[in-house]
């Protein structure tokens, strides 16, 4: 991830934050549309789950300049997701739902450069979670 990509992610995320509740609703709707088998993994209140998701993304985005501080939390999240029944392939579905949600929320501001930046950032975070999950499962 380049410094320019980090800036693009931060600037675009700042536009999503005011509509975080709607973004979470769109995200989970798309996620379950893409893979209905994921719905049973979510057992609690979906509004609360959406708020947790937005908070987690916010923390990750705000920590892009300090990845060494964010990585332990992302690893912990990956280890916890093993217990929820999350598989490696599910991360791809989540990434697709995230990019779709960002495109819906940002409209024309979701340029190819912004998409590439988010794809890079999500890839780093997902890979970190998957590696931690594999270690936890071993």
Walk me through what this model shows.
With 138 residues, the protein is an all-alpha fold. The chain has a single domain, classed as Globin-like (Orthogonal Bundle). Helices cover 79% and strands 0% of the residues. The chain contains six helices and no strands. The chain has helices at residues 3-16, 20-34, 46-62, 67-84, 88-106, 112-137. Helix 1 packs across helix 6. The longest helix is centred in the last third of the chain and has 26 residues, at 112-137. The mean pLDDT is 93.
Q: Oligomeric state of the chains? A: single chain
Structural class: mainly alpha
* Helix/strand order: HHHHHH
**What is the CATH topology descriptor?**
Globin-like
DSSP helix count? 6
Shape, principal axes of CA atoms: globular
Q: Can you give the helix content as a percent range? A: over 70%
**At the fourth CATH level, what is the homologous superfamily?**
Globins
Summarize model confidence as the mean pLDDT: 93
The total number of structural domains is 1
Question: What is this structure, in a nutshell?
Answer:
This protein has 138 residues and is mainly α. The protein has six helices and no strands.
Primary descriptors:
single chain; 138 residues; mainly alpha; Globin-like; 6 helices; 79% helix; 0% strand
How is the topology of this model organized?
Layout: H1 3-16, H2 20-34, H3 46-62, H4 67-84, H5 88-106, H6 112-137
Helix pairs in contact: 1-6, 2-3, 2-5, 4-6, 5-6
